[in-house]
Amino acid sequence: MTARGKFLVLEGIDGCGKSTQLRHLATWLPSSGLMPPGAGLICSREPGGTALGLALRQLLLHPPEGLAPHSRTELLLYAADRAQHVQQCIEPALAAGNWVLCDRFSGSTAAYQGYGRGLDQALIDQLEQLATAGLRPDLCLWLALDPLEAAQRRAGERADRIEAEGLAFLGRVHAGFSALAKRPGWQQVCGQGAVDQVQARLQACLQQWFVQNP
């Protein structure tokens, strides 16, 4: 019987270097010795990990002029994206013994819509249970970076609707991730410094984690 795969998530505020580090991990993990023989690595993201999710991502991040979703609508759209993502992509991959490496998951909803938007956490948890059917990542890696530095890194780049919310919003989201990172199944990794330094920290964290949690 095929052993169930592992579900890894990389979380963090916009500008923390998450997408860059996910590409490095996607290259490193298959040769790291952590994955069992025969297991594949599926890389995905939220929102947008499925064809339906790509349409929802466009509505969430680049809606038509004057048609930005209200906060509760935004939360429901993220939940719809996650429900489709779990059922169509993540669960089948894990059941087949493959590993899944995902750019954002439920932690981002708690941080952005909970701490950032101020929506009721009980409502978020209820929708989360519905969307995921109880699926939880084996490990969430929070790439921690000061919001001001993250904003400076993004200076001059075209911002999507969420990125354009400003530094105060980003600070609340950062505080949310800081609180979430104290939960079981989370590891905080410093996002400061050169790309290769952060990459080395992530690799060391993963190696230590799977020694302690085989």
From TrEMBL:
Residues annotated to bind ATP: 12-19
A single GO BP annotation from the record? dUDP biosynthetic process
Extract the SUPFAM superfamilies matched here: P-loop containing nucleoside triphosphate hydrolases
Q: Which UniProt keywords apply?
A: ATP-binding, Kinase, Nucleotide biosynthesis, Nucleotide-binding, Transferase
User: What GO MF terms are annotated?
Assistant: ATP binding; dTMP kinase activity
Q: Name one Pfam family in it.
A: Thymidylate_kin
Reaction equation(s) it catalyzes: dTMP + ATP = dTDP + ADP
Its EC top class is transferase
Superkingdom, taxonomy of origin: Bacteria
Write down the InterPro entries for this protein, in alphabetical order: P-loop_NTPase, Thymidylate_kin-like_dom, Thymidylate_kin_CS, Thymidylate_kinase
EC number(s) in its UniProt entry? 2.7.4.9
Thymidylate kinase-like domain boundaries? 10-199
Q: Which GO terms describe its cellular component?
A: cytosol
Family matches, as Gene3D superfamilies: P-loop containing nucleotide triphosphate hydrolases
Function text: Phosphorylation of dTMP to form dTDP in both de novo and salvage pathways of dTTP synthesis.
Q: Which family, according to UniProt?
A: Belongs to the thymidylate kinase family.
What is the protein named? Thymidylate kinase
Q: Which gene encodes it?
A: tmk
